């Protein structure tokens, strides 16, 4: 039995050769779409300022609200924190 005209994709064969099977977009391509547009040091200046001022005045353990708010902002900007 010969499988001469069997193709794995919907793409037409070129020059009599069968194209390789197509695959789903890779994770690298998906992460490129969500790549941050800014450097992390420049993202979310408002929440960063509030977080830093709180830590200086009250200590890190008293500022979890501002730390989490800054992390949420960074994630919204595309950072993985």
From TrEMBL:
The terms describing its cellular component in GO are: mitochondrial intermembrane space
**PROSITE patterns given in the database record:** CHCH (PS51808)
Q: Which InterPro entries match?
A: Cys_alpha_HP_mot_SF, Cyt_c_oxidase_Cu-chaperone
Record's subcellular location: Mitochondrion intermembrane space
Domain of life of the native organism:
Eukaryota
> Which residue ranges are recorded for the region named Disordered?
1-37
- Where along this sequence does the record place binding of Cu cation? 41-42
Q: Does the keyword Chaperone apply?
A: yes
From the UniProt annotation, give the residues forming the signal peptide. Answer: none
Tell me the PANTHER family matching this sequence.
CYTOCHROME C OXIDASE COPPER CHAPERONE (PTHR16719), CYTOCHROME C OXIDASE COPPER CHAPERONE 1 (PTHR16719:SF12)
Q: Which family does it belong to?
A: Belongs to the COX17 family.
Q: What is this protein called?
A: Cytochrome c oxidase 17
Q: Which organism is it from?
A: Arabidopsis thaliana (Mouse-ear cress)
Q: Which gene encodes it?
A: COX17
